[in-house]
Amino acid sequence: LTAAEQAAFDAVVADDGRIEPRDAMPEGYRRTLVRQIAQHAHSEIIGMQPEGNWITRAPSLRRKAILYAKVQDEAGHGLYLYSAAETLGADRADLLDALHAGKQKYSTIFNYPTLTWADTMAIGWLVDGAAIMNQVPLSRCSYGPYARAMTRVCKEESFHQRQGFEGMLTLVRGTEAQRRMAQDALDRFWWPSLMMFGPPDDASPNSAQSMAWGIKRFSNDELRQKFVDVTAPQADFLGLRVPDPELRWNDERGHYDFGTPDWDEFMRVVKGDGPCNRQRLEARRRAHDEGAWVREAAAAHAARRSAVARA
Ligand code: ACO
């Protein structure tokens, strides 16, 4: 970057403006965005698996139609995000290769199993709730294509969160067995949901620089706190108990106090040793291999169209 280009970039960021694909940008900024957007895209498409697992067993036609729509939305989010990464010069095929080789990460949350129907509802309520908390600020991030992709993603995530909460409400108002199923799902998904925000601030190597570049607007711990503040009263409303003995409202701070997630477990899952890591990657690789003919057909079709256009 020349000094003038660096100064122009710094001015846009300082002014809360948007960096666009053709603008000059520091190589570290580009690399950080490709890393984060790719991880985000991978999370969306791997995230189709835990809930996709329940489409054939949804308890009613209405629930099935909603779940179908939601899982398809996640696929769409993956596509917007891979496209956003491509505006930075990344190649989608390379990003997928890196995912399949275990070289690029995806969110730890999707390495936990969905054992019951209530798990799919808890995912909507908690996981999509956490995703919104994290992604609404990203719609104001300094990189234009990523910020714009978040607008529609967040609207859809908000539908996902509401359907999950409404599904939990239906369960807690049902039989005692249904209420217990909802509590069990909350017990298993609470802590992994808090881990979605990433490591604590003092152990987050990328945060300071990403905040300075206007990619992150809030730190990992700030977003985690916001999530707990919004979600704890929702659990009360459902009549469910959050599995954290330290959770209580702190009048002085104006926030909930809460316990510490098991960061050793988080690191194990990040490194590939969670309950479903192997299963998720294997299913993803298989889906990719089985989709090879679609990619080939699309490429052949595009080549023919451009040949026709040239003729
Ligand atoms: N799961 C897997 N990896 C994680 C997680 C997580 N829950 N949290 C942090 N990490 C990784 C980071 O990607 C980073 O990886 P690196 O080794 O490539 O540098 C490393 O752990 C250290 O963390 P941070 O320094 O805090 O990383 P970062 O500044 O990127 O913050 C965060 C992490 C908050 C997840 C950020 O990348 C982000 O906002 N991403 C976009 C949102 C997203 O990916 N959501 C996916 C789940 S939501 C959904 O799909 C429905």
UniProtKB/TrEMBL annotation:
<dbReference type="InterPro" id="IPR052703">
    <property type="entry name" value="Aromatic_CoA_ox/epox"/>
</dbReference>
<protein>
    <submittedName>
        <fullName>1,2-phenylacetyl-CoA epoxidase subunit PaaA</fullName>
    </submittedName>
</protein>
<dbReference type="InterPro" id="IPR007814">
    <property type="entry name" value="PaaA_PaaC"/>
</dbReference>
<dbReference type="InterPro" id="IPR009078">
    <property type="entry name" value="Ferritin-like_SF"/>
</dbReference>
<dbReference type="InterPro" id="IPR012347">
    <property type="entry name" value="Ferritin-like"/>
</dbReference>
<dbReference type="Pfam" id="PF05138">
    <property type="entry name" value="PaaA_PaaC"/>
</dbReference>
<dbReference type="InterPro" id="IPR011881">
    <property type="entry name" value="PaaA"/>
</dbReference>
